[in-house]
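Title: Prediction job returns without error message
Component: structure pipeline
Severity: low
Priority: P3
Assignee: unassigned

Description:
Job completed but the reporter wants confirmation the result is attached to the right record. Sequence as submitted:
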Amino acid sequence: MKDTSSVEMKNTTSTEEKGSELGTPKEKAKIAAFLCKWCSYAGADLAGGSRRKYPPNIRIIRTPCSARINPLFVWKCLEEGLDGVLVSGCHPGECHYTEGNYHTRRTFAVFRKLLEYIGIEPERFHMSWVSAAEGDKWAEVVKQVVKAVESVGPNRYFPKGNENDGRGTS
């Protein structure tokens, strides 16, 4: 009879072993998501409540309406080193504030062209329309955004630690 009381169990999925087997672990993309509270935020809440699996890279910022999202918010996220930004609201024609998402669509179409003009990859900025009943769609949108942002790598357009930031501090 074999003595099984002294059998050692080895955890083969420790982070040290993964790092040594695969080289250095890949850093996850950091993505900010500005969501309208009526539709997209509720859709994200439904996805979480339904236990839909999606990457944890997204940090959600709830806004009253997608039209309240200033393009400077997106710029500031990229400037602060985030790898990508998602803006999501109600489907066109279904805005709780009548025409807010039409305003958002026009504003960010121009902003996207500006980002491309100055050389920032278009994969760093995404827009989507998700209703409160579309938890599955929210999970898919997040997966697609994370995949697109990770495909272009970390944000290197705004290096940190730049002492001369052009503000003329004395």
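Comment from assignee: result matches the submitted record. The chain has one domain: 27-152.
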